[in-house]
Design goal:
By secondary structure, the protein is of the alpha/beta class. The protein has one domain: TIM Barrel. Helices cover 37% and strands 18% of the residues. It is built from ten helices and ten strands. Strands 1-2-5-6-7-8-9-10 form an eight-stranded parallel barrel, surrounded by six helices. The protein starts with a helix and ends with a helix.
Length: 273
Amino acid sequence: MKNIFFLLISMFFVVSCNKNEFDINNLNGNKVSAIGHGGMGIGHSYPMNSFEGILNSLSIGADGVEIDIQMTKDGILVAFHDGKLEESTNRSGKIYDKTWAEIEGARFSYPHYGNHKIIRLNDIFQNIPDREKYTYFLDIKSFKPNKDSLYFETLNNAIIDIIDRYELVEQVYVEFKNEKSISELKLIRPDIKQFVYNDFDYALSLAEQYNLQGITIAIDKLTHEKVKLAHSKNIMVATFNTHSHQRNIDAVKYNVDYNHTDRLKHLLKILKD
């Protein structure tokens, strides 16, 4: 009987020691929001930025999704990460050099991805059930060289049109990497929330200068002290490159506000536990 008692006690302590216990203190209501990186994340059975991957991430409990966005030659916002279509689809060329009519129907070309097509941002929001319940990070990719004032005007108008059409000004964070993009959108629509992703010090300075909501920093470039510094300036922190269980745990321990994770199921599990 004693042996059984001690065995049960030992099992209790093993389970207790293995359980992750977090004391979260951040600007996001003291919770880390689980954001699916491009949907279900890199290396999943759904391609990044596919509608199926985005919908699946929300259906299993994600608080929101990060979506990579590029603009076509005719001003259509498309969910796509790479600089060239041939890197991951059955088409070639660059998004900014093509109209949507030239891109429509393009399929992801990785093994077992062939049934998934590139999609417009408008189609994503149009088809997400209860879209107002989720958070969206729009990572604006601007591969086009020599961007002029017309480019920024067209891009901003396209972003504003989508946000206003679906009444998502409270749910959307627009992510930019450079000051020009940040300042142009801030000038015409200061109510649209922005994050800046860049090196920590530069991103923090831009966030302070333009009164942005937050900064997005790779997990391997973050520390608990850096997150604490940003929070002391009332600036939220999002992180990415969390493609392992340990990196998910580190992100939570650092008290980030949003984790753009590639291991969504694991993050949801440890936050629930």
